[in-house]
Design brief:
heterodimer, A: 293 residues, Uridine Diphospho-n-acetylenolpyruvylglucosamine Reductase, domain 2, Enolase-like, domain 1, 3 domains, four-stranded antiparallel sheet, B: 779 residues, Aldehyde Oxidoreductase, domain 4, eight-stranded mixed sheet, six-stranded mixed sheet
Chain lengths: 293, 779
């Protein structure tokens, strides 16, 4: 049972930042609550103050323009993202990722900002945002700063957010007019599942429709934080993506960059074996999505 | 074709609409005036000596009305061995064992008080592994097992962790193996599983000034729990009343009292105020009940032509910290461990073993799904060793009418051969190889699974029917509705027998004070036992109606005949209809029944007379059970060699149903059973480290979600072997529905990979390696 707490609903960013600063470790920011309240249920975690940021205007809504690209409020739910017409058309990889979060009920509550700020290595929304080169808009008492999502995580459940800071929006430029994207989640079942492993791929090819000109790969639950695997990405540049052997070799390289841990859920060798098989597969799926467009 | 009006027709359950719309009121919805809320301080460690219990902090919390420790309620429970107290007193034996109870005005206060309880425990090494538990130098979960009272059929082994050693001896296995041309020996393991019913364990209890106890709980078998509590508390059964609101799923897990004794313990200290105790999901995982894990050692010998000549097994059941009804699970699995195959020589030794883990108890199948997985792996191993087709070797040995069971008894009403053939036909056995690789590079396999199971005997139940003047009837019985559909099948029977419409029949909430005696809701017994009692009760109603109508018509009782469809016909002395008739649903309009004697029919059914007590050493007997169940599943699976993941494509479930009284109910049981079986085989397991449960939550203990159920399920009901003693020939389907899914899926995986499946659940890790080997071989 959840222990009693004071429930605060700041109306402005300033209020939220001040509350977060004031309550420190006895407080927690909540949006959808699908992580926070679930954690409180186990009885080992307690917060005296829960700060609900859902009413703050800057944290709401999805904005998109041809010039600026996409901007997601931190309090935007997964389900809002998966049904947004522009996102489903131009940011398919993101839709693929958020669509695997929990269940429809969870996606109706859970937010993209929460998915990022919980900073779980397994977050389904984060990998796609990483390969879309997203950046975070952060607000503190002193003002605003922008941090690339790739630099947002400092460790498992740890982020660059300071004691007075909240994530306001996450934004990204439009992807190339032709690109391939794919998200692969490895779990034991098809819903209500925390990824044992996840892979996000974004790629572009030359006019020959084969030669890779851009490759971005993000891995979840393969390191203490969600990561990009830059060496493997670099390897793919200039490679013929129809060459199965060349693509397969990417799997051999990626395990050099990954450092999954062993736990009772799965041992590290198993995760590495999967990565070796599934990174090339996900690259192929992304490539196929581009070709079949 | 049989000539029934209601029997054999698909009928929707009467409780569906309320359950789907949320109108049903479950135990958690109960609120009584003055009710207090209970909370439980539970052991955080799996094994340890309690040094001190300090509850002073709990008393300081506002609203606290009672704090109860083990010494306050030193009552012992245990169906087989009385090894468990309501609360731990000197020692804790599993993580989550209750130590202190608190009742307060609000739930928040009760939880707050529990947080203030201080218990000092000296930790002891946990007995974590069932095979280590039976080693000589293992720490003991119970130091003095032999000192607990136990039922005579259970044989604890003094100075060990063995709750019970079950033995079965048929023929001479030494001789049998000497005759064998081939012998296969393997070991198999099943993980501990949780029932994971939607509704957690909970109870609300009240103790009145005379000491009478009333409990509202989702008790699967209220009379069983009443008996347990009566013995434990040393008060007569008539001083305990158990009321059973609609139950949110049981699967065997609600056979044992879990929350009931805790709510009672508190209510004994609240001066008449009722107390409600609801387990959280986390508590339900730790301190509810589980299906025991098991380690089988199996040895099977056969002739060159496939005839099995000997079977031997030693098996160890990881039954956890207290024995509950686990010895019966061990027993039931051992009796059918050679499968539905006629084997002349059988020797099994089943050990029911204590560990510092969650409490093993009944789960849908009572050990048969686990046994079926193991005996079917043995059949596949034999087929391979002999170069025979897996279907052929099964057919060669399959039981038929007149076969001798492991108990030595001669079987009748055996439809398993037809089931096996139906399952094989449904999966296209003869048209396809047992394994192949798809053009997408996935490995497919097909497999077969059979099972046999018996219903608990001797047993008893009873039904009363109150017939109203308006032609409606109210049926009372104490078999609970767990989702199995008893609440529609019994009205169907009464409707058929009395010739009144199904919608005219209602049922009564189970309540040990108002509904008639029933042994238990387990063992797939309801349709068979209760159905027979309902037919008798209906006959009693008909007799009374004929008598009353005869009185009104001013004729002799024997001259009023009850005809099919609920027509009463007057005949003359020669038996010729006089032309005077009445309809059952129009008795009131015709002033035939109002103001008359109350019409209250009753019927009972019990199986003491057909049961022959088995010999405890050999388990040989003339007749063990009222009813044997048989069936077969066939499965097709697809394995992804990159991920090691297995997907079940199709399951054909053929069941020796005797007579399907409600085919829709059968389908619902089978669909649920197949999905549950798939979950058991591919997903579910308790993971322990040193007695600590790692995955006691709904995220990490993976039952299938609705997104994991896209499997094609084909049900085939075999009605060629009606049971001569069953209502209309019917047998049970509740547990059978899932008993052969695990074995068929495991068999399909075995065939896909070409290596035995030695552990369920089948994990991707363990099959990745086999996959790769298989792919390389096929290149």
């Amino acid at each position: 049972m959840i222990a009693k707490f004071d429930y605060h609903v700041p109306a402005t960013l300033k209020e939220a930042c001040e509350m977060k600063q004031e309550y420190g470790s006895s407080g927690v920011i909540v949006a959808g609550g699908s992580d926070v309240y679930a954690k409180l249920h186990d009885g080992n975690h307690r917060y005296d103050h829960v700060i609900d940021i859902k009413k703050i205007p800057e944290m709401k809504g999805i904005e998109w323009s041809e010039q600026e690209g996409l901007s997601l409020g931190a309090a935007v739910t997964h389900h809002e993202i998966e049904r947004h017409p522009v996102i489903t058309e131009r940011y398919q990889v993101l839709v693929q990722g958020v669509r695997t979060v929990g269940s429809l009920q969870v996606r109706n509550r859970g937010t993209i900002g929460g998915n990022i700020c919980t900073a779980a290595p397994s977050a389904d929304g984060v990998g796609p945002l990483l390969v879309l080169n997203s950046e975070c808009v952060i607000h503190g008492i002193g003002g605003e700063r922008i941090v690339p999502l790739a630099e947002f995580f400092t460790g498992p459940k740890r982020t660059v957010l300071r004691s007075d800071e909240v994530l306001v929006r996450v934004r990204m430029k439009n992807p190339a007019s032709r690109y391939g994207g794919a998200y692969f989640k490895y779990g034991r079942r098809n819903a209500m599942e925390i990824a044992l492993l996840n892979i996000s791929v974004y790629l572009e090819v030359d006019d020959d429709n084969k030669t890779c000109t851009e490759m971005r790969i993000a891995l979840g639950t393969s390191a203490p934080t969600p990561i990009r695997v830059h060496k493997t990405e670099q390897y793919f540049i200039g490679k013929d993506l129809t060459d199965n052997e060349a693509v397969a070799k990417g799997g051999d390289l990626v395990i050099e960059e990954a450092s999954p841990r062993s736990s009772w859920r799965a041992n590290s060798n198993f995760r590495l074996t999967l990565l070796r098989q599934l990174v090339p597969r996900t690259v192929k799926t992304a490539y196929k999505s581009l070709i079949e467009e | 074709m049989d000539n029934y009006n209601v029997i054999g027709k698909p009928e929707l359950r009467k409780d569906s609409r309320d359950k789907v719309t949320g109108a049903t009121q479950y135990c958690c919805d109960i609120t009584l005036t003055g009710m207090l809320h209970g909370a439980v301080y539970r052991s955080k460690v799996p094994h340890g000596k309690i040094q001190s219990v300090d509850v002073s902090g709990a008393w300081e919390v506002e609203g606290v009305r009672a704090v109860v420790t083990g010494k306050d309620v030193p009552y012992r429970i245990g169906r087989s061995i009385q090894d468990q107290t309501f609360l731990a007193i000197d020692k804790v034996r599993y993580q989550g064992e209750p130590i202190v109870l608190v009742a307060a005005d609000t739930l928040e206060q009760a939880y707050e008080a529990v947080r203030k309880v201080k218990v000092d425990i000296e930790q002891l090494p946990a007995v974590n592994d069932v095979l280590e538990a039976v080693e000589e130098n293992s720490p003991l979960v119970h130091e003095k097992l032999e000192e607990y009272p136990h039922i005579p059929t259970v044989r604890p082994v003094n100075g060990t962790n063995i709750y019970d050693h079950f033995t079965l001896r048929k023929g001479d296995v030494e001789k049998g193996f000497a005759e064998a041309d081939v012998i296969v020996e393997n070991e198999y393991e099943c993980a501990i599983l949780h029932h994971a019913a939607i509704e957690n364990h909970m109870a609300t209890a009240k103790v009145d000034a005379s000491g009478k106890i009333t409990v509202w709980s989702p008790a699967q078998s209220p009379f069983y729990i009443r008996g347990e509590l009566s013995r434990a508390l040393g008060i007569p059964e008539n001083k305990i009343r158990i009321i059973v609101p609609p139950i949110g799923g049981g699967f065997g897990g609600k056979l044992e009292p879990r929350a009931e004794q805790l709510a009672i313990a508190l209510a004994m200290h609240t001066k008449g105020r009722p107390v409600k105790v609801m387990f959280s999901r986390e508590e339900d995982f730790l301190a509810g009940t589980v299906r025991a894990g098991v380690h089988f050692k199996m040895k099977t010998g056969a002739k060159k032509d496939g005839t099995i000549v000997a079977f031997e097994s030693t098996n160890y059941w990881d039954s956890g910290a207290y024995s509950t009804i686990s010895p019966t699970v061990t027993l039931k699995a051992n009796v059918i461990l050679a499968g539905p195959y006629e084997v002349k020589n059988i020797k099994t030794d089943g050990y029911c073993v204590a560990t510092n883990k969650q409490l093993g108890t009944a789960q849908r199948g009572f050990g048969v799904a686990e046994a079926s997985y193991a005996h079917e792996q043995q059949m596949d191993a034999l087929a391979k060793a002999l170069g025979m087709d897996p279907l052929e070797i099964r057919m060669k040995n399959i039981m038929v009418d007149g076969s001798k069971a492991s108990t030595g008894e001669t079987l009748f009403s055996v439809g398993v051969k037809e089931c096996l053939q139906e399952a094989a036909d449904g999966i296209g056995w003869k048209d396809h190889p047992i394994s192949w690789i798809t053009k997408e590079g996935k490995i497919r396999g097909r497999g077969l699974g059979t099972f046999m199971k018996f219903t608990g005997t001797p047993s008893y139940t009873s039904v009363t029917i109150k017939f109203n003047f308006d032609g409606t009837a109210i049926v009372s019985y104490s078999t609970t509705e767990l989702g199995q559909g008893v609440g529609i099948v019994i009205p169907q029977i009464v409707s058929e027998e009395l010739g009144i419409p199904l919608e005219n029949i209602s049922t009564v909430q189970v309540d040990t004070e108002n509904t008639p005696l029933d042994k238990t809701t387990t063992s797939s017994r309801a349709t068979f036992h209760l159905g027979n009692a309902a037919i008798k009760a209906s006959a009693d109603v008909k007799r009374q109606i004929c008598k009353w109508v005869a009185f009104k018509w001013n004729t002799e009782e024997n001259l009023v005949k009850f005809e099919k469809g609920g027509i009463l016909v007057e005949v003359d002395a020669e038996g010729t209809p006089t032309g005077r008739t009445a309809r059952m649903d129009q008795l009131d309009e015709n002033s035939l029944i109002r103001n008359g004697e109350p019409i209250l029919g009753y019927g009972s059914y019990e199986t003491t007379n057909i049961w022959h007590k088995p010999d405890l050493e050999t388990y040989q007997t003339e007749r063990l059970t009222a009813m044997w169940f048989f069936g077969a599943n066939a499965a097709e699976v697809e394995i992804d060699p990159d991920t090691g993941k297995t997907k079940v494509i199709k399951v054909v479930a053929a069941h020796d149903i005797g007579k399907a009284l409600n085919p829709l109910g059968c389908l619902q049981q089978v669909e649920g059973g197949v999905v549950m079986g798939i979950g058991n085989t591919l997903l579910e397991e308790f993971i322990h480290r040193d007695g600590y449960l790692m995955n006691g939550n709904m995220v990490d203990f993976k039952i299938p979600t609705s997104m994991d159920t896209d499997v094609e399920i084909e049900m085939r009901l075999v009605e060629s072997s009606p049971h001569p003693e069953g209502p209309y020939g019917a047998k049970g389907i509740g547990e059978p529905a899932m008993c052969a899914t695990q074995s068929a899926v495991a068999s399909a995986v075995e065939h896909a990979l070409g290596v035995p499946v030695t552990h369920v659940p089948i994990k991707p890790e363990t099959i990745l390696e086999a996959c790769r080997k298989r792919m390389e071989e096929s290149k």
